[in-house]
Amino acid sequence: MKYGFFDDERKEYVITNPQTPFPWINYLGNKDFFSLISNTAGGYSFYKDAKFRRINRYRYNNVPMDNGGRYFYINDEGTVWSPGWKPVKTELDHYECRHGLSYTSIKGEKNDIEAEVVFFVPLNALCEVQKMKLTNKSSKTKKIKLFSLIEWCLWNAEDDQNNLQRNLSTGEVEIHGSTLYHKTEYKERRNHYAFYHVNAPIQGFDTDRESFIGLYNEFSHPDAVFTGKPKNSEAHGWSPIASHCLEVELQPGESKEYIFLLGYVENTEDKKWESKGVINKTKANRTIEQFNSSEKVNRALDKLATYWDNLLSNYSIHSGNDKLDRMVNIWNQYQCMVTFNMSRSASFFEVGIGRGMGFRDSNQDLIGFIHQIPERARERIIDIASTQFEDGGAYHQYQPLTKRGNNAVGGNFNDDPLWLILSTTAYIKETGDFSILEEIVPFDNDESRAKTHFEHLKASFYHVVNNLGPHQLPLIGRADWNDCLNLNCFSKDPNESFQTTENQTGGSAESIMIAGLFVVYGKDFVELCRRIGRKDEADNAQEHVDKMVKSIKKHGWDGEWFLRAYDSFGNKVGSKDNEEGKIFIESQGWCTMAGIGKNEGMCEKALNSVKKYLDCEYGIVLNHPAFTKYVIEYGEISTYPAGYKENAGIFCHNNPWVMIGETMIGRGDQAWEYFRKICPSYLEEISDLHKTEPYAYAQMIAGKDAFKPGEAKNSWLTGTAAWTYYVITQYILGVKPSYDGLEISPCIPKTWKSYTVSRKFRGAVYEISIDNSEGVNCGIKELTINGETMHKNVIPIQKAGTINKVNVKMG
Ligand code: BGC
Ligand code: NOJ
């Protein structure tokens, strides 16, 4: 069953039934000021950091689901309703939510009044704009009351929920005309406040939640709205809110527009006050001035559209297949921007207080983002590298506000360092900007311990070399990419966190996944060294890579597939000898990407085993058979019920690794089949099973052993976004940035006859036509650029500003 449809022309997903199987959300804001918004206007905003600068309050896992947001209420002569259906849930005569690129528009109609609200965060602004248009579609004059509502969070989202003995006494507001200010803690250590404004005179307001809603009422039934009378309440402690009340008279056929503005302001110490106890509103007024008319707001919306058109034009395809085109051209790229901005911090599954910017996560997210805004990618790479330690190890995450690493979700994940080589080399291949390697970057954010970025990459490489175990394979540390394979944890105590507990220090467990990863990015490191003339460095590194290949072949092969690990006792993990968890996806992905034993048929065998044991209707599961009992020496993985998350769930993030592996041995049909299975636009028809948005990837789809195979969870903030974008654009469609130019090497289904790719690369445009009339998976017979035949498949870098025609004949 579907709950809406794709409007490709407008780059929107249109939801026509508000009761989606899970809230289907969108993200507003591209830098600094962000909002999450569901299809019924639930969600919240924050400045930079969802934990430390939460602007409005949101209660996760609420009853009913998704309660709280930026709500509007209309009281039309006693009939009360909300344009987004929630929170009042009065049945609407018409409902439509359009999630677009960085904006959402929600339209509701009841008794001939139509209310349409467009929500967005303008470029370079610290506010969310809500443009409300009310239309009287009847033949009578209508007099209605319009109420707005947001509930303020007392800034630190974690403390806001925990420290009630203090917080219920600290809330402070200021009221000035149509602007309601939130200034809790501003008088002491904070230099920031928020405001909620409307560009029209108001009939009344409320800033105290209890007065507006009523202590025993719900969001769906606020006292003030139902009585039609704002209380003009002034919050002192308890729970500050902001609600405007407007009286609106509409003639038959008449429309009126109002601009609501939720803004954030920071002031320097000397400019905090206007007079004693009265906050300085200069910056707030400036923001209001910028967006106080429909014309100004429409212009900002146009700018946003142009911004996205530009970003998306860097890579676009025409394949004749709408489901594929809309993912590559719109939604997948969009999700890559979202994961770039959010890492794993704030979604409807990530509460915005537990996790910040992940070292491994953010490095990987970059491979789907670099082509969009390379300068921001560069800055991110340096931010991440600045949290690295001198030995190459890393904090597992940092807070976006402070950019400081922390150990809240553990440390010593021995895969972490290598992902920095991936992001940096991907950045240089896209931009040709080798100067990033010369950038002076601190270790552990300590400027006095800074070295060049190249030294950081070297430290990453040698972190693996310096941490080898008994089989000369990489020690796993706390865990590798699979956070739940905790081979040194040994936890018996339910009060211990699997992420931070390490009862077995100095453990000797080894990871074959890291081994494969090391070979892939080790080779990249070697190539990079050669390109910058560090021949000795390259030769030395190559020796370590060669040794690793040998160790994998000798100790990492199980006969039909690659082993996953050695546990702390030196026993095999992911072997035919195991009772459960005989085969794992990660090592098959990385060792085949690394081409280990390709000539001996190992890659093909391993991939055939993936197909045989791990593939299912909805994607490739992580391991097989699923664990059905707790294995203390494996940790969290065996705590999940079979078929979920890291225990034999379809953990979408890793499926592209196998797809890339398939392209390495030329199996385009298989790579595509795996791609299609987890691609959300292909799952739209089964939305009631799949549950999460048909326009965004989810982290996990329940696997074949689950109670409900095919049901997805944890949408949006997942490495799946970047990896699927990477595999489809670079390995399947086969247009790949490289140091010397654009490499063309498609690996597609035989049935695809032709497609075109438009790619902007280092300032030039490449219009690439691929002709596969011979019906092959891969191989190029003829390649011309601007009519000239090329004898290799790397198109040399063309002059910036030129438009170049590339014709490719496969065969
Ligand atoms: C989850 C992992 C996640 C980790 C984050 C675990 O419970 O299963 O997917 O990466 O928590 O800390
Ligand atoms: C989600 C985490 O964000 C990521 O870092 C990890 O690799 C996967 N879970 C797999 O456990």
Keywords:
alpha+beta, 10-stranded antiparallel sheet, 6-stranded antiparallel sheet, 27% helix
- Uncertain spans: none
Strand order of the largest sheet: 1-2-9-10-11-12-19-16-15-14
Largest sheet: 10 strands, antiparallel
Give the CA-based shape. Answer: globular
Cα distance spanning the termini:
40 Å
Percent of residues in helices? 25-40%
Ligands present: beta-D-glucopyranose, 1-deoxynojirimycin
Question: What kind of assembly state do the chains in view correspond to?
Answer: single chain
| Rg of Cα set | 28 Å
> Percent of residues in beta strands?
25-35%
Find the count of extended strands (DSSP E, 2+ residues): 45
Structural class based on helices, strands and sheet pairing: alpha+beta
> Counting H and I runs of at least 4 residues, what is the number of helices?
19
The chain-level mean pLDDT equals: 98
Walk me through the topology.
Elements: E1 4-7, E2 12-15, E3 25-28, E4 33-38, E5 43-47, E6 54-56, E7 71-76, E8 79-81, E9 94-100, E10 103-110, E11 113-120, E12 127-136, E13 142-155, H1 157-162, H2 164-167, E14 173-176, E15 179-182, E16 192-198, E17 204-208, H3 209-213, H4 223-227, E18 240-250, E19 255-266, E20 273-275, E21 278-279, H5 282-290, H6 294-312, E22 315-318, H7 322-342, E23 357-358, H8 359-365, H9 374-385, E24 395-398, E25 405-411, H10 418-431, E26 440-443, E27 446-452, H11 453-465, E28 510-511, H12 512-531, H13 535-555, E29 565-566, E30 572-573, E31 583-584, H14 585-593, H15 602-614, E32 615-616, E33 619-620, E34 623-624, E35 650-651, H16 655-664, H17 668-678, H18 687-690, E36 698-701, E37 712-715, H19 720-732, E38 735-738, E39 741-744, E40 754-761, E41 764-771, E42 780-785, E43 788-789, E44 794-796, E45 803-810
Parallel strand pairs: 41-45
Antiparallel strand pairs: 1-2, 2-9, 3-4, 4-5, 6-13, 7-8, 7-13, 9-10, 10-11, 11-12, 12-19, 13-18, 14-15, 15-16, 16-19, 17-18, 20-21, 22-40, 23-24, 24-25, 26-27, 28-29, 29-30, 31-34, 32-33, 35-36, 36-37, 38-39, 39-44, 40-41, 42-43, 42-45
Helix pairs in contact: 7-19, 8-10, 9-10, 10-11, 10-12, 11-12, 12-13, 12-14, 14-15, 14-16, 16-17, 16-19
The structure holds beta-D-glucopyranose and 1-deoxynojirimycin.
Residues 409, 483-484, 499, 636, 645-646 line the site of beta-D-glucopyranose.
